[in-house]
Design brief:
The complex is a heterodimer. Chain A is mainly beta. Chain A folds into two domains: 154 residues, no CATH class; 112 residues, Cyclophilin-like (Cyclophilin). Chain A contains four helices and 20 strands. Chain A has a seven-stranded mixed barrel with strand order 12-19-16-17-14-13-20. A six-stranded antiparallel beta sheet of chain A has the order 7-6-9-4-1-11, with no helix packed on it. In chain A, strands 2-3-10-5-8 form a five-stranded antiparallel beta sheet, with helices on one face. The longest helix of chain A is centred in the first third of the chain and has 10 residues. Chain B has four helices and 13 strands. Chain B is elongated, with a radius of gyration of 18 Å. Chain B is of the alpha+beta class. Classes of the chains: A mainly beta, B alpha+beta.
């Protein structure tokens, strides 16, 4: 029997790298410190909106997906999302990881390491993230994925609904799943800088722009708003010029999307992120385009946000009169 | 029907009333629109969330062709019975608002047939509509910071049961031990859109 055959069956995998060995079943990430906020996240929870369950999932979907691509993980493998750094993990068994998103200074057992690269951590090694100079959320992907039990088809923690894995705490052991069959084929991914003092987000007006005065819509599109510290995975609460309503009364609660700029009675918009409520009763003046949501999720408190109109490539909303 | 846009992430369909919401939801179940990942029914609207690369115009066009006539599908699925201890903090306030005695109020709530119109607010929180307009009451002027799990409440045209303790502004009629939300059950929500609900007086049984 040739070695080649052996590697294709259940026998010893002679070509296995660190993190792919026979001890794979027992591998884990031990949480040493979480920083201000760390959650387990994946691509989100789909198909349960009719039960009042939101999508949740990684707030910056681009950085999260990059971590999995670097590790040759399947799309949707669960990772750790950490806010403003401070996460420290110890490898239990050899693991392969990648850190993406907000550019945090990394150390492996005290030695400097780079983000957006494939990092092999031997058993017992500690990876520590410092505070990023810009941006808000960093992702620690692990080859094989964080293998906690899924809830309603997802390993994401929805902090608003209280669904999904418990928040990791020092001492938590997060099991790592079996390594995928494919191997990482790049060591490093060049990326555009994440975060910054100002970000411009493209929006489409509506669905409830008619609840606001023309002046309010002009204000939204010409002013700078600042992300306040009262921001979380539910939404970025913005401070800036108030948006006046053109009508009074109450809007019956309606479904909400990530990226919605919902305007409570105070007039300052809230930009909904991954754990936004499934339904809401305040009008949404505009919605941030899907492609710009990852940048919205990287706007830390103090960031100036401007909104610019994305001209719709196709026609106006269709209307139909009921007979 | 008005079809409104949520940028490239959703299409919000506004209809005349809850009956049309229920009819359109049934039509979307019978004829799913390609690219729609989630449907969020609400009081006067259905939000269709769409996946990346799906053209909202295509979705809007597909929706405008769907029937809105209620009655096309009357199979409401199962009926669940929820026993309630009618000892809620707002029972007297609601009695005053409705002009009913406490006894009449309980009889009205248990006598009505309720249908879950949609879920929202929290996982498993079903907004149920009934057939007794005497039970329409406003929300409380000020929300409570904590409403216990199992609280049975009224607000607007709806009744609801809090699946877990949370802040809430509805008028509390009583409480139930029924498992409204249970992740070990499939599906976890007892009160899903379309389910019919009867409340019973747990004291009387």
């Amino acid at each position: 029997m040739s070695t080649r055959t052996a590697t294709r069956t259940a026998g010893p995998r002679t070509t296995a790298g660190p993190g792919d060995g026979p001890s794979a079943r027992r591998r884990a990430l031990e949480i040493v410190a979480t920083g201000p906020m760390t959650t387990v996240q994946d691509a989100g929870r789909f198909g349960h909106a009719d039960l009042g369950v939101g999508r949740s999932g990684a707030a910056d979907t681009d950085s999260y997906a990059l971590a999995n691509r670097l590790l040759a993980n399947p799309e949707g493998a669960a990772a750790l999302e950490t806010t403003l750094g401070g996460l420290r993990v110890r490898a239990r068994g050899p693991v392969t990881v990648a850190v993406t998103g907000a550019d945090t200074p990394l150390r492996v057992d005290g030695r400097g390491a780079a983000t957006n690269t494939v990092l092999h951590l031997p058993d017992g090694a500690e990876l520590a993230m410092g505070a990023p100079a810009r941006g808000l959320r960093s992702y620690l992907g692990v080859r094989g994925g964080v293998d906690v039990p899924p809830v309603l088809g997802s390993r994401s923690t929805d902090v608003l609904a209280g669904l999904g894995p418990d928040l990791p705490a020092p001492g938590t052991l997060l099991p790592v799943g079996p390594a995928p069959t494919g191997f990482p084929n790049v060591d490093h991914a060049p990326t555009a800088p994440v975060g910054g003092p100002e970000t411009v987000l493209r929006v489409v007006l509506g669905p409830r722009e008619d609840w606001f005065t023309d002046a309010a819509v002009d204000t939204l599109l010409s002013s700078a708003y600042e992300v306040t510290p009262r921001s979380d995975r539910v939404g970025a609460r913005l401070s800036g010029p108030v948006l006046d309503r053109a009508r009074t009364g109450e809007l019956p609660s309606e479904g909400m999307v990530a990226g919605a700029l919902q305007v409570p009675p105070g007039g300052e918009p809230v930009l909904f992120l991954a754990d936004h409520p499934v339904t809401g009763g305040y009008p949404v003046v505009a919605v941030v385009c899907a492609a710009d949501l990852p940048r919205a999720a990287q706007a830390r408190p103090g960031t100036r946000v401007r909104f610019t109109l994305r001209t719709r490539p196709s026609g106006p909303p269709t209307e139909r009169q009921e007979t | 029907m008005r079809v409104l846009r949520c940028a490239d992430t959703g299409v919000l369909v506004e209809v005349a009333d809850l009956a049309e919401v229920i009819a359109l939801r049934a039509a979307l179940e019978a004829e799913p629109v390609p690219g729609v990942t989630d449907v969020v029914p609400a009081a006067r609207t259905l939000l269709l969330r769409i996946g990346p690369g799906t053209d909202p115009d295509m979705v809007a066009a597909a929706v405008t062709g769907l029937p809105l006539a209620p009655g096309g599908r009357r199979d409401f699925g199962e009926t669940v019975t929820i026993p309630v201890f009618y000892d809620g903090e707002d029972l007297d306030d609601v009695a005053e608002l409705t002009g009913l005695t406490r006894r009449e109020l309980v009889e009205a709530h248990t006598g009505a047939t309720w249908t879950v119109a949609f879920c929202g607010f929290a996982p498993g929180f079903g907004y149920m509509v009934g057939d007794d307009p005497r039970l329409h009451v406003p929300r409380r002027g000020e929300a409570r910071t904590r409403v216990p799990a199992g609280s049975v409440a009224l607000a607007g045209e709806f009744t609801g049961v809090y699946p877990r303790s949370s802040p809430g502004g509805w008028q509390l009629l009583g409480r139930t031990g029924a498992r409204i939300w249970d992740l070990d059950r499939e599906p976890p929500g007892l009160l899903r859109p379309g389910v019919r609900v009867r409340f019973t007086d747990a004291e009387a049984s």
